[in-house]
Write a structure and sequence with these properties.
Layout lengths: L4 E4 L4 H17 L3 E6 L14 H22 L5 E6 L3 H9 L4 E5 L12 H10 L4 E4 L19 E4 L7 H14 L3 E4 L5 H8 L5 H21 L5 E4 L5 H8 L5 E7 L9 H9 L4 E6 L1
Parallel strand pairs: 1-2, 1-4, 2-3, 4-5, 6-7, 6-9, 7-8, 9-10
Antiparallel strand pairs: 5-10
Helix pairs in contact: 1-2, 3-4, 6-7, 8-9
Amino acid sequence: MSRPIVVGVDESDGSLAAVDWAADEAALRSTALRLVNATRWAEHQLPAIRVSHEDRAGQAEGVLGAMEERVRARRPELAMTAEQIEDSPAKVLLEAASRAAVLVVGSHGLGSVGGFVIGSVGQEVVADAKQPVVLVRPDHRDDAHAAPGADGKREVVLGLDVNDARNELMEFAFDYAARCDVPLRIVHSWHDPFFHHHRAAGDGGSNAQAEVASALSRAVRPFRDRFPAVQVSEESPTGRPAWRLVEAATDARLVIVGRRLAASGSHIGSVTHAVIHHAACPVAVVPHR
Protein backbone atom coordinates (compact mmCIF):
# COMPACT_ATOMS: atom_id res chain seq x y z
CA MET A 1 0.00 0.00 0.00
CA SER A 2 1.15 3.55 -0.67
CA ARG A 3 2.12 5.94 2.10
CA PRO A 4 -0.79 6.96 4.36
CA ILE A 5 -2.43 10.32 4.76
CA VAL A 6 -1.54 11.62 8.24
CA VAL A 7 -3.67 14.13 10.12
CA GLY A 8 -2.84 15.86 13.39
CA VAL A 9 -5.79 15.91 15.78
CA ASP A 10 -6.70 17.87 18.90
CA GLU A 11 -9.85 19.41 20.39
CA SER A 12 -10.15 22.31 17.91
CA ASP A 13 -12.78 22.89 15.23
CA GLY A 14 -9.93 23.13 12.75
CA SER A 15 -8.97 19.58 13.65
CA LEU A 16 -12.48 18.35 12.82
CA ALA A 17 -12.26 19.95 9.38
CA ALA A 18 -8.76 18.56 8.87
CA VAL A 19 -9.89 15.02 9.72
CA ASP A 20 -12.75 15.24 7.22
CA TRP A 21 -10.42 16.51 4.49
CA ALA A 22 -7.80 13.87 5.26
CA ALA A 23 -10.34 11.03 5.27
CA ASP A 24 -11.65 12.09 1.86
CA GLU A 25 -8.12 12.41 0.49
CA ALA A 26 -7.19 8.95 1.77
CA ALA A 27 -10.30 7.52 0.10
CA LEU A 28 -9.47 9.22 -3.20
CA ARG A 29 -5.93 7.81 -3.05
CA SER A 30 -7.10 4.37 -1.88
CA THR A 31 -4.63 4.51 0.97
CA ALA A 32 -4.74 4.39 4.76
CA LEU A 33 -5.44 7.21 7.19
CA ARG A 34 -3.31 7.77 10.30
CA LEU A 35 -4.55 9.96 13.15
CA VAL A 36 -1.88 11.34 15.51
CA ASN A 37 -2.21 13.32 18.73
CA ALA A 38 0.70 14.82 20.69
CA THR A 39 0.04 14.57 24.42
CA ARG A 40 2.88 16.86 25.59
CA TRP A 41 1.21 20.23 25.13
CA ALA A 42 2.38 21.72 28.46
CA GLU A 43 4.93 24.06 26.90
CA HIS A 44 2.19 25.43 24.61
CA GLN A 45 -0.31 26.11 27.40
CA LEU A 46 -0.68 29.04 29.78
CA PRO A 47 0.41 28.12 33.34
CA ALA A 48 -3.12 28.66 34.67
CA ILE A 49 -4.61 26.01 32.41
CA ARG A 50 -1.85 23.39 32.30
CA VAL A 51 -3.06 19.90 33.07
CA SER A 52 -1.37 16.81 34.45
CA HIS A 53 0.17 14.05 32.34
CA GLU A 54 -2.68 11.71 33.26
CA ASP A 55 -5.30 14.27 32.30
CA ARG A 56 -3.57 14.98 28.99
CA ALA A 57 -3.40 11.27 28.17
CA GLY A 58 -7.09 10.88 29.01
CA GLN A 59 -8.02 13.86 26.87
CA ALA A 60 -5.97 12.50 23.97
CA GLU A 61 -7.66 9.11 24.19
CA GLY A 62 -11.08 10.76 24.15
CA VAL A 63 -10.17 12.98 21.21
CA LEU A 64 -8.78 10.10 19.18
CA GLY A 65 -11.82 7.95 19.89
CA ALA A 66 -14.18 10.69 18.76
CA MET A 67 -12.16 11.27 15.59
CA GLU A 68 -12.11 7.56 14.77
CA GLU A 69 -15.90 7.45 15.06
CA ARG A 70 -16.15 10.52 12.82
CA VAL A 71 -14.00 8.90 10.14
CA ARG A 72 -15.89 5.59 10.27
CA ALA A 73 -19.18 7.43 9.80
CA ARG A 74 -17.79 9.39 6.87
CA ARG A 75 -15.55 6.80 5.17
CA PRO A 76 -16.29 3.35 6.61
CA GLU A 77 -14.13 1.63 3.98
CA LEU A 78 -10.89 3.30 5.11
CA ALA A 79 -8.04 1.45 6.79
CA MET A 80 -7.18 3.60 9.79
CA THR A 81 -4.80 3.79 12.75
CA ALA A 82 -4.82 6.22 15.68
CA GLU A 83 -1.92 7.04 18.00
CA GLN A 84 -1.29 9.28 20.96
CA ILE A 85 2.41 10.13 21.24
CA GLU A 86 4.16 11.61 24.25
CA ASP A 87 6.17 14.43 22.69
CA SER A 88 5.88 18.03 21.51
CA PRO A 89 3.29 18.67 18.77
CA ALA A 90 5.72 19.92 16.12
CA LYS A 91 8.11 17.00 16.64
CA VAL A 92 5.27 14.47 16.50
CA LEU A 93 3.80 15.95 13.32
CA LEU A 94 7.16 16.27 11.53
CA GLU A 95 8.09 12.69 12.38
CA ALA A 96 4.70 11.46 11.17
CA ALA A 97 5.01 13.54 7.99
CA SER A 98 8.33 11.87 7.14
CA ARG A 99 6.44 8.62 6.52
CA ALA A 100 3.33 10.13 4.95
CA ALA A 101 2.13 10.99 1.46
CA VAL A 102 0.54 14.16 2.84
CA LEU A 103 0.28 15.70 6.30
CA VAL A 104 -3.01 17.47 7.07
CA VAL A 105 -3.39 19.99 9.89
CA GLY A 106 -6.16 22.33 10.94
CA SER A 107 -6.12 26.04 11.54
CA HIS A 108 -7.06 27.07 15.07
CA GLY A 109 -9.06 30.08 13.99
CA LEU A 110 -9.42 32.85 11.46
CA GLY A 111 -7.48 36.03 11.06
CA SER A 112 -8.96 39.48 10.77
CA VAL A 113 -8.98 39.22 6.98
CA GLY A 114 -10.41 35.70 6.83
CA GLY A 115 -7.22 33.69 6.49
CA PHE A 116 -5.53 31.12 8.68
CA VAL A 117 -4.21 31.44 12.18
CA ILE A 118 -1.89 28.45 12.36
CA GLY A 119 0.22 29.35 15.40
CA SER A 120 3.83 28.51 16.16
CA VAL A 121 3.38 24.74 15.81
CA GLY A 122 1.79 25.07 12.37
CA GLN A 123 4.44 27.51 11.24
CA GLU A 124 7.23 25.14 12.30
CA VAL A 125 5.60 22.14 10.63
CA VAL A 126 5.04 23.96 7.33
CA ALA A 127 8.59 25.31 7.37
CA ASP A 128 10.30 21.98 8.13
CA ALA A 129 8.16 19.19 6.62
CA LYS A 130 9.73 17.24 3.76
CA GLN A 131 6.32 16.14 2.47
CA PRO A 132 3.32 18.22 1.32
CA VAL A 133 1.31 19.83 4.13
CA VAL A 134 -2.35 20.73 3.69
CA LEU A 135 -3.85 23.38 5.98
CA VAL A 136 -7.61 23.24 6.48
CA ARG A 137 -9.58 26.06 8.08
CA PRO A 138 -12.50 25.36 10.45
CA ASP A 139 -15.20 26.75 8.17
CA HIS A 140 -14.13 25.17 4.90
CA ARG A 141 -17.05 23.98 2.77
CA ASP A 142 -17.81 20.37 3.54
CA ASP A 143 -18.57 19.68 -0.13
CA ALA A 144 -15.19 21.02 -1.24
CA HIS A 145 -13.63 17.56 -1.15
CA ALA A 146 -16.61 15.44 -2.08
CA ALA A 147 -16.73 12.70 -4.69
CA PRO A 148 -15.43 13.66 -8.16
CA GLY A 149 -17.79 15.98 -9.95
CA ALA A 150 -20.18 16.27 -7.02
CA ASP A 151 -19.33 19.85 -6.12
CA GLY A 152 -19.81 21.59 -9.45
CA LYS A 153 -16.21 21.17 -10.61
CA ARG A 154 -14.69 23.74 -8.27
CA GLU A 155 -11.18 24.31 -9.58
CA VAL A 156 -7.76 23.76 -8.11
CA VAL A 157 -5.42 26.77 -8.23
CA LEU A 158 -1.65 26.36 -8.59
CA GLY A 159 0.69 29.28 -7.99
CA LEU A 160 3.67 28.78 -10.28
CA ASP A 161 6.81 30.84 -10.91
CA VAL A 162 7.86 30.17 -14.51
CA ASN A 163 11.40 31.22 -13.61
CA ASP A 164 11.53 28.47 -11.01
CA ALA A 165 8.90 25.99 -12.21
CA ARG A 166 9.30 22.87 -10.13
CA ASN A 167 8.07 19.43 -11.11
CA GLU A 168 7.03 18.65 -7.53
CA LEU A 169 4.38 21.38 -7.59
CA MET A 170 2.99 20.47 -11.00
CA GLU A 171 3.02 16.75 -10.20
CA PHE A 172 0.99 17.38 -7.04
CA ALA A 173 -1.43 19.77 -8.77
CA PHE A 174 -2.08 17.69 -11.89
CA ASP A 175 -2.38 14.45 -9.91
CA TYR A 176 -4.87 16.03 -7.49
CA ALA A 177 -6.95 17.56 -10.29
CA ALA A 178 -6.97 14.25 -12.20
CA ARG A 179 -8.05 12.20 -9.17
CA CYS A 180 -10.78 14.67 -8.23
CA ASP A 181 -11.88 15.25 -11.84
CA VAL A 182 -11.77 19.04 -11.45
CA PRO A 183 -10.25 21.85 -13.54
CA LEU A 184 -6.75 23.14 -12.80
CA ARG A 185 -6.03 26.87 -12.97
CA ILE A 186 -2.34 27.79 -13.12
CA VAL A 187 -1.42 31.34 -12.16
CA HIS A 188 1.94 33.02 -12.69
CA SER A 189 1.83 36.64 -11.57
CA TRP A 190 4.76 38.78 -12.53
CA HIS A 191 6.32 42.21 -12.38
CA ASP A 192 9.04 43.00 -14.90
CA PRO A 193 10.82 46.34 -15.04
CA PHE A 194 10.97 45.93 -18.81
CA PHE A 195 7.16 46.05 -18.83
CA HIS A 196 7.30 49.82 -18.36
CA HIS A 197 9.86 50.08 -21.15
CA HIS A 198 7.51 48.21 -23.48
CA ARG A 199 4.66 50.54 -22.53
CA ALA A 200 6.86 53.58 -23.18
CA ALA A 201 7.70 52.13 -26.59
CA GLY A 202 3.99 52.14 -27.42
CA ASP A 203 3.17 48.42 -27.49
CA GLY A 204 1.31 48.50 -24.14
CA GLY A 205 3.53 45.74 -22.79
CA SER A 206 2.05 43.19 -25.18
CA ASN A 207 5.46 41.77 -26.11
CA ALA A 208 6.44 41.23 -22.50
CA GLN A 209 3.05 39.70 -21.72
CA ALA A 210 3.32 37.35 -24.70
CA GLU A 211 6.80 36.24 -23.63
CA VAL A 212 5.63 35.43 -20.11
CA ALA A 213 2.58 33.56 -21.41
CA SER A 214 4.79 31.56 -23.76
CA ALA A 215 7.19 30.66 -20.96
CA LEU A 216 4.30 29.50 -18.80
CA SER A 217 2.93 27.38 -21.63
CA ARG A 218 6.31 25.72 -22.17
CA ALA A 219 6.68 24.93 -18.47
CA VAL A 220 3.23 23.35 -18.24
CA ARG A 221 3.17 21.46 -21.56
CA PRO A 222 4.91 18.23 -20.36
CA PHE A 223 2.28 17.82 -17.63
CA ARG A 224 -0.57 18.59 -20.01
CA ASP A 225 0.75 15.71 -22.12
CA ARG A 226 0.98 13.38 -19.11
CA PHE A 227 -2.50 14.28 -17.82
CA PRO A 228 -4.57 14.83 -20.98
CA ALA A 229 -7.89 14.46 -19.14
CA VAL A 230 -7.22 17.45 -16.88
CA GLN A 231 -8.88 20.67 -18.00
CA VAL A 232 -6.16 23.32 -17.63
CA SER A 233 -6.23 27.10 -17.85
CA GLU A 234 -3.13 29.29 -17.68
CA GLU A 235 -2.99 32.91 -16.52
CA SER A 236 -0.05 35.32 -16.35
CA PRO A 237 -1.40 38.61 -14.95
CA THR A 238 0.84 41.40 -13.75
CA GLY A 239 0.77 42.30 -10.08
CA ARG A 240 1.82 41.00 -6.70
CA PRO A 241 1.87 37.16 -6.84
CA ALA A 242 0.48 36.63 -3.35
CA TRP A 243 -2.59 38.78 -3.84
CA ARG A 244 -3.25 37.44 -7.31
CA LEU A 245 -3.24 33.90 -5.87
CA VAL A 246 -5.48 34.83 -2.95
CA GLU A 247 -7.89 36.42 -5.40
CA ALA A 248 -7.81 33.40 -7.72
CA ALA A 249 -8.48 31.04 -4.80
CA THR A 250 -11.57 32.88 -3.54
CA ASP A 251 -13.92 30.01 -4.41
CA ALA A 252 -11.35 27.29 -5.16
CA ARG A 253 -11.32 23.73 -3.93
CA LEU A 254 -7.62 23.94 -3.06
CA VAL A 255 -4.74 26.37 -3.66
CA ILE A 256 -1.24 24.93 -4.09
CA VAL A 257 1.99 26.80 -3.39
CA GLY A 258 5.61 25.79 -3.03
CA ARG A 259 8.30 26.00 -0.38
CA ARG A 260 11.99 25.61 -1.11
CA LEU A 261 13.82 23.01 0.97
CA ALA A 262 16.70 25.01 2.48
CA ALA A 263 20.09 23.43 3.10
CA SER A 264 19.94 24.73 6.67
CA GLY A 265 17.26 26.39 8.75
CA SER A 266 13.55 26.81 8.16
CA HIS A 267 12.04 29.17 5.65
CA ILE A 268 8.60 29.95 4.25
CA GLY A 269 8.69 32.29 1.26
CA SER A 270 6.78 35.55 1.33
CA VAL A 271 4.21 34.44 -1.27
CA THR A 272 3.51 31.13 0.48
CA HIS A 273 3.34 32.90 3.84
CA ALA A 274 0.78 35.39 2.51
CA VAL A 275 -1.36 32.71 0.85
CA ILE A 276 -1.41 30.63 4.06
CA HIS A 277 -2.67 33.59 6.06
CA HIS A 278 -5.16 35.02 3.58
CA ALA A 279 -6.56 32.23 1.37
CA ALA A 280 -10.22 31.36 1.84
CA CYS A 281 -9.80 27.66 0.99
CA PRO A 282 -7.51 24.79 2.04
CA VAL A 283 -3.85 25.40 1.19
CA ALA A 284 -1.34 22.75 0.11
CA VAL A 285 2.32 23.68 0.68
CA VAL A 286 4.56 21.46 -1.47
CA PRO A 287 8.29 21.38 -0.64
CA HIS A 288 10.80 21.31 -3.48
CA ARG A 289 14.54 21.51 -4.07
